[in-house]
Amino acid sequence: MFKPIQAYIGLRYTRAKRKNHFISFISAISMLGIAVGITALITVISVMNGFEQELRERILGMLAHATITSVRGEMDQWEQAMLASANHPEVAGAAPFIERETLIKGYRTSGALVRGIDPELEGTVSEVGDKMVDGSLADLREGEFGIVLGVNLAMALGVESGDRVTVFAPQVRSTPAGVIPQVKRFTVVGIFSVGMHEFDRGTALVHLGDASRLFRVQSGASGVRLKVTDMFQAWRVARELQSELSEIFFISDWTQKHANLFRAVQIEKTVMFVILSLIIAVAAFNIISTLVMVVTDKQSDIAILRTLGASPATIMGIFLILGSFIGLIGTTLGVIGGVSLATNVETVVPFLERTFNIQFMSGDIYYITDLPSDMQWSDVVKVAALSFSMSILATLYPSWRAARTDPAEALRYE
């Protein structure tokens, strides 16, 4: 069907001839519309991928990929759980922990989640050691009762490194004076900032041994945190470990704890993809208008070709090639523009901020002050395929109309 004659005539119709400059202008607008739509779609999807990746990295900077806990709250056999986890080929690190919600008093008072950790093993399951803005996790020594605070929590308490704070444990103890809460004075030995308000404002770290004494955890740990080689396989590793360990252990992964958050991000990406795809659809529909005008303008040419022996399939092929060429050029320009912009967002945005003296994402409001971008070629291929498919579909009706042209009717008034 697509012989050189169809390609020759179809591509020739893309060039302006005397009276059809307007048609060529509409063709150029269709190409430009498709290119702009693809550029916008690739850029937006890449930026949203970047936000998702940045969010995931910041969350997992504090949270483990998987967590082993006990249905009773304390783990008498946490060493067994660590040994079983370490034997799994996809577990990269394991560390015990104790977590309790408490009240902390400095110059001011605030609630917080106090987590007891082993400073030597914590680096194998989280990145908090790399996010220290003052001090280090090595300053947490058993028996010295040091504490590391999130940067926003430290500001809320009005303290800094070297100051002392009081931690109120949820347990109480009986004395001759009555029942009083369990309290302990800690010295601030470090401050961390992971860039997530949830952790920077509400998390404090102490040594595992100190937490065991403060919260009266006789077993020494309330759970084991794990890091796996592939975070996206954490659910499978957790399921495999669950089948190996006793029923008294409960294993959860990071996707369960933040399922709603990442599901919302995924839904937002899907909605944005659909909305921006409408831009491409509108541009593709312009191809219909272009081809309809070309068919009307070329009625006599079509009739002559038919009288010379051209079949309806040949006529249809001419206009299919014309519409496909418009869609191909628009798609190619859009992919080039989208890839170029998506891979240079970190450069383009600061340039625009300096040029117009504005800040798109103020640090006073957002915890991510830069626009991250993670362009994935699978998204680019998906967008390009969608655009070109729309262009092909847009050519079908005008091409079919051209193929049905009656030569006698078209040449009646010529």
Key attributes of the depicted protein:
414 residues; alpha+beta; 2 domains; six-stranded mixed β-barrel; 53% helix
Short account of what is shown:
This protein is α+β, with helices and mostly antiparallel strands. The protein has 15 helices and ten strands.
Structure in words:
With 414 residues, this protein is of the alpha+beta class. The chain folds into two domains: 204 residues, no CATH class; 192 residues, no CATH class. It is 53% helix and 19% strand. The chain contains 15 helices and ten strands. A six-stranded mixed barrel has the order 2-3-8-5-7-6. The longest helix is centred in the first third of the chain and has 40 residues. The chain is elongated, with a radius of gyration of 33 Å. The two termini are 29 Å apart.
Radius of gyration: 33 Å
Output the strand order for the largest sheet: 2-3-8-5-7-6
**Overall number of structural domains:** 2
**Number of DSSP strand runs:** 10
Q: Helical amount among residues, as a percent range?
A: 40-55%
- The fraction of residues assigned to DSSP E strands is 15-25%
**Tally of helical segments:** 15
Uncertain residue segments: none
Integer average pLDDT: 81
Q: Which word captures the global form?
A: elongated
Q: What structural category arises from helix and sheet content?
A: alpha+beta
Helix and strand pattern: HHEHEEHEEHEEHEHEHEHHHHHHH
Q: Main sheet?
A: 6 strands, mixed, barrel
Distance N to C terminus = 29 Å
